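Incident log, entry 3
Record: NAD(P)-dependent oxidoreductase (477 residues)
Problem: checksum mismatch between cached and fresh output.
Input:
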Amino acid sequence: MAQKMLKFISREREMPQKRAAAERAHDFDEIYREFAREKAAEQAARCSQCGVPFCQSGCPLHNNIPDWLKAVAEGRMEEAYRLSSDTNTFPEICGRICPQDRLCEGNCVIEQSGHGTVTIGAIEKYITETAWDEGWIEAPAPRRERTESVGIIGAGPAGLACAERLRRAGVQVTVYDRYDRAGGLMIYGIPGFKLEKEVVLRRWEQLEKGGVRFVMNCDIGASKSFDEIRLVHDAILIATGVYKTRDIGGPGSGAPGIVQALDFLTASNRKGCGDAVPEFDDGTLNADGKRVVVIGGGDTAMDCVRTAIRQGARSVKCLYRRDRANMPGSQREVQNAEEEGVEFVWLTAPKGFTSDQRVTGVKAVRMRLGAPDSTGRQVPEEIPGSEYTEGCELAIKALGFEPEDLPKLWDVEGLDVTRWGTIKADFRTHETALDGVYAAGDIVRGASLVVWAIRDGREAADAMLARFDAAVAMAAE
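Fresh output:
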């Protein structure tokens, strides 16, 4: 067979075609079109097959990227899917929403040599969409059933990844979640233009077909106690995520028209799912016709500004206290937002709000980057006398998330937490201070990436299986 790889010199990097900004800014459909088979193979063939695959080490799941790129280039699509799914429970989701520019693609060897990284994320998405079309993706079907039972609290990426891995091993799995749909922030936090909801919902349906039991609209501590769940399962996974929003005060911070990012995004996503959302319909959580100011520079802020554009905002500005090079959000998302009409106001911080019955503006001050702190990151400093007001009718706070006080909410003793309020768990087994209770995802890490949650959920499942196997071996002695 002729050499199909190492084509990075003769073939330039290409992403799937991106819909024009004027078109995509009016709907919530995904903005990238699908690769055709020939184009996916051509782009996969750009991989250098380097001896030390930094793309793989840059991926939290350590996906076997070079091997499945070679399989795509050589037309072995089912093998590519098997390789991809061996290490990743939801590769089509990671292919859509992972910040590849900071992970696999950002560590690509040919990117470092100036030839442009392989389009790993787009090919990963293409592989799994092909697998869905061809019927290669099947519900988890264990070879034999086990008697052990696991309760998983939280139907986000960590909980679902753990459920899938346990169910394939034959464990009896029940997932409890406070919402009416599985997926967590993948359903109600991330907008459809990055992750269409059907992509998540079909995984939920597949897990149900495979025997995972879901108990939805179940708020632990209210509708069901934590101790009650522990009594009926051999092990528990806490995978609730972090939903408590960080806030800023200042004069006028309680005025109508100042909302939290998660409330804004949830209302928009529920509306897109066909739900009745009174706060959207009455304009409280709707940007239509308004001047919008979003405060923050992370991926949640990017989701908010791009959602506001699609809702028909008159103007959208994003205030961030550092410069573009130092923002935590994806640079790719910033570019997409700018193309769609968002204005970024760098080196600007909020000081308060003006209002007349409802919010009329954000009091802001210009910033400059001062000396580095202990982490090496430059500290923003106010520029004296630079205060001004950004006019708006809707101000959205996108300042990140913190963990809820679960020991208090669930009335459970012995569940240790860190000084940040996250659950304290062993970094290898994910077991907490409570025997048989594990924790994974953002509730341990703090607000992080979906790919890290998937990794944690898989590792927790493996630790539970090791525990069960050890118990079986001991009983047989």
